[in-house]
């Protein structure tokens, strides 16, 4: 699916190949302490669910350069299915980058709350285990404002 949906910069420039773009960015900034963080968010509106995946190349203390993809699917009314689909999309992007030689995926950010008081908690353990079983470090709702906030903004725009 990564090839089916084009990534863009925030200036709307379409990237021909996101894997090459990320590799080139990391090469250009190899002396910086860049962290690659991937996250996906979604929102139901009308008959569709809008998803957005963000790849952030974050230089702590100096900001982040982000690229994103946004797409619509048939409305997913089951919250747990929609949240796990977000995790699946982030993992798909991470695996595609890794298979293309980007071995520096620092975090997968999930928009799921570990606090049982919140509804998204119903899939927290499943999502966390899935990400970790794929070899990635997971950050959750309160620990990952950068990428999920960007994805949330894109979904709503």
Note down, in words, how this protein is organized.
This protein is α/β, with parallel strands linked by helices and 157 residues long. It has one domain (8-156): Nucleotidyltransferase, domain 5 (2-Layer Sandwich). Helices cover 34% and strands 27% of the residues. The protein contains four helices and six strands; from the N terminus they run βαβββαβαβα. The protein is globular, with a radius of gyration of 15 Å. The mean pLDDT is 90.
Compile the SSE list and pairings.
Blueprint: E1 8-9, H1 18-28, E2 35-45, E3 48-59, E4 63-74, H2 79-99, E5 107-109, H3 124-133, E6 138-139, H4 145-156
Parallel strand pairs: 2-5, 5-6
Antiparallel strand pairs: 1-4, 2-3, 3-4
Helix pairs in contact: 2-3
Mean pLDDT: 90
Low-confidence stretches: none
In helices, the fraction of residues equals 25-40%
Structural class: alpha/beta
Query: What integer value in Å does the Rg equal?
Result: 15 Å
**Major sheet summary line:** 6 strands, mixed
Which topology does CATH recognise? Nucleotidyltransferase, domain 5
In DSSP terms (H or I, runs of 4 or more residues), the helix count works out at 4
CATH architecture title: 2-Layer Sandwich
Number of beta-strand segments: 6
The fraction of residues assigned to DSSP E strands is 25-35%
- Which strand order does the major sheet show? 1-4-3-2-5-6
CATH class: Alpha Beta
Number of domains: 1
Large-scale geometry: globular
Straight-line distance between termini: 22 Å
């Amino acid at each position: 699916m990564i090839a089916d949906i084009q990534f863009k910069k925030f200036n709307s420039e379409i990237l021909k190949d996101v894997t090459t773009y990320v590799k080139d960015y990391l090469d250009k900034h190899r002396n910086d302490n860049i962290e690659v963080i991937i996250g996906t968010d979604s929102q139901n509106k009308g008959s569709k669910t809008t998803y957005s995946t963000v790849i952030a190349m974050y230089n702590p203390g100096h900001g982040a350069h982000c690229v994103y993809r946004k797409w619509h699917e048939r409305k997913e009314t089951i919250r747990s299915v929609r949240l796990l689909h977000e995790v699946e999309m982030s993992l798909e992007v991470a695996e595609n980058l890794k298979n293309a030689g980007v071995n520096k995926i620092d975090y997968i950010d999930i928009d799921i709350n570990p606090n049982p008081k919140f509804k998204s908690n119903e899939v927290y353990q499943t999502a966390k285990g899935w990400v970790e079983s794929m070899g990635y470090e997971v950050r959750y709702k309160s620990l990952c404002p950068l990428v999920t906030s960007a994805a949330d903004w894109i979904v709503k725009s």
